[in-house]
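Structure request: nitric oxide dioxygenase, Micromonospora nigra.
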Amino acid sequence: MGDVARLLKESWTLVEEDRDRLSGHFYARLFLLDPELRKLFPVQMSGQGDRLLEAIITAIHTVDDPEGFDEFLRSLGRDHRKYHVEARHYETMGVALLDALRSTAGDGWNLEYDQAWRDAYAAISIRMLAGAAADDDPPFWHAEVLTHERYGSDTAVLTVQALQHPLSWRAGQYVSVEVPRYHPRVWRTYSVANAPNDNGVLEFHVRTPTGAGWVSGALVRRVKPGDLLRVAAPMGSMTLDRSSERDVLCVAGGVGLAPVKALVEELASYNRTRWVHVFYGARAEADLYGLDGLRELVAAHPWLSVTPACSDDPDFDGELGDISDVVARYGPWTTHDCYVSGSARMVRATLRVLAEDGVPPQQTRYDTFGNL
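Returned structure:
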């Protein structure tokens, strides 16, 4: 699909600077074609277009990687079961998407671009439908909040337990969460902060951004033990390669600690030979909410080290500076499997450090909160 991939990426440049218009046109056209689809979406649509575009961007950047393309789209198809999307809806969405692309691109659009998107969308929908059809799990799990602990004004750690059906995940994966009591049909993704366990309890670390984040705001400020959430199927590939004998580097910023903590917990269940280095950064010492828990793991496992750092706290008795710069000072990391999790800016900076260090791309996996 080399030519298709080139045409998709080339044509995307015509619309990527006008994403609001693109998503607005898509949803207007979609609901005009099938008004019944409107009830599948939240009352307030702000932010909904961003998730559509994130999926499109990911798809067009993996189209020339057949294995990654197939895996991502099958997972996406399974995930979309939570929205009650049916096979007949895919054709309608394809028509709306092509119409939105043509309208937003304007005079720069041509027949080659049109055919490339038709072919790509056909491949996308086939794989998503196959993923949905092959999934025997429920579209989502009802889960009860067991514990809820606040750290400052904007961060919370909570545990939940799936009811009725067991939920299986791998350390490093993330799930979509809905808080139906406060924001029905609005889903947000959160990394699971613990390794799989026999009792099916999941831990989440949630930070609510200033002036945004309906679901995160509810999870931090309003949810309490006993409340019910909905949790969708796990996704993501920032998982451990158990066949690898390389040492491990984990870099976490803020609540990006969640998947890193899960990876360390899984390593604790079997690792005896691999050194594991965790770098954990935040703006100030008060924001290093998970440091005590990491230090408990260090005390129990001699192969584990943790290096905390603060970027904006001169009184901190430890490493100072952005976590990516701290990681650079401790390199080289060329012989390590590297896992990076945090804000888009932090992940981008750390990946740049690892690339400059000569770490092969196949040894690096990352999870970012926001667009790269």
